[in-house]
Write a structure and sequence with these properties.
This protein has about 170 residues and is α+β, with helices and mostly antiparallel strands. Helices cover about 25% and strands about 20% of the residues. The strands form 4 sheets. A two-stranded antiparallel ribbon has the order 1-8. It has a two-stranded antiparallel sheet with strand order 2-3. It has a two-stranded antiparallel ribbon with strand order 4-5.
């Protein structure tokens, strides 16, 4: 399972980021970094001929480099959902996960513990959609549970990010 963004539908309104901050009690005024970032890239053009807009959080990579990089074993792939989850109880604040992540997903609390998007795992377990998806009025964000639900490659942020990650190796 993964959360994908249909690049052709995102308008960078920020509703997903606000919903994420609310769901996770992220207090940006006190230095916490949001799990989801939204921006407009005027240099890139989407399939509709408009500037590309992006809503980016943890990509929950199939072979997540942050999992391998964490010496304390705080980050694991959830076998049931495929999400990249964390338990920062034993986090030593070394930032190895952040250095390994090609998308800059790991953030750190003021006490140095790592935190990141967990795909709203608690909401999913309760049969609800992730907060960011529920808030997106344009249907740009969606949960992809199987290959038949995947977006076309030219509209998928996941495909674009996989291509970028390959270039970084």
């Amino acid at each position: 399972m993964k959360i994908d963004l249909d690049i052709s539908r995102c308008c960078a309104c920020g509703a997903c980021a606000v919903a994420c901050m609310d769901q996770n009690d992220i207090d940006v005024e006190n230095g916490l970094r949001p799990f989801r970032s939204v921006f407009r890239d005027d240099w890139s053009i989407n399939a509709n001929g408009l500037p590309a807009c992006f809503s980016i959080a943890c990509m929950h990579c199939r072979e997540a480099p942050c999992v391998l990089a964490c010496p304390a074993g705080c980050i694991k792939k959830d076998e049931a959902t495929g999400l990249t989850l964390y338990d920062n109880t034993h986090c030593i604040g070394c930032h190895s996960c952040a250095m390994a992540c090609p998308f800059g997903a790991p953030a750190f609390t003021p006490d140095g513990k790592m935190q990141k998007c967990d795909g709203c795992a608690e909401r999913l377990r309760a049969g609800l959609e992730p907060a960011c998806i529920r808030a997106c009025a344009f249907g740009a964000l969606k949960v992809v549970r199987c290959p038949s639900e995947e977006l076309p490659a030219d509209r998928s942020l996941c495909v674009l990010c996989e291509e970028l990650a390959k270039l970084q190796k």
